[in-house]
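Quick one: structure for this chain?
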Amino acid sequence: IQGKLCIFCLLCEAYLRWLQLQDSSQSPDPDDLIRYAKEWDFYRMFGIASLEQAAFLIGIFTALWLARPRVLQTKADFILLLKALLLSSYGKLLLIPAVIWEHDYTHLCLKLIKVFVLTSNSQAIR
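Got it. Here's what it folds into:
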């Protein structure tokens, strides 16, 4: 189930990035031919979010292994840290209500969610 939730968090992050694209605003024209291109922009944002998350995890594991090689000696230690980082990233699910209930403070909410996830990740690393 952790893998499924991880994918769902990546989808939330990709949707947020896609929403913030300058050219992703909806057109009132019903013959909008750019929808297909917008869909591919979403897939591109999903790929970027996936690569960033993988780079983040690899960076954390590498930094911890280089800084304290005795802390992450066994495979179980790596698995526990990976689970802690995945669980601490579930705060990204708060993006769903923020996007659904879009209001004047949406951008502030999105920034607060990012701070919350970053704080959760730093606590998970501890």
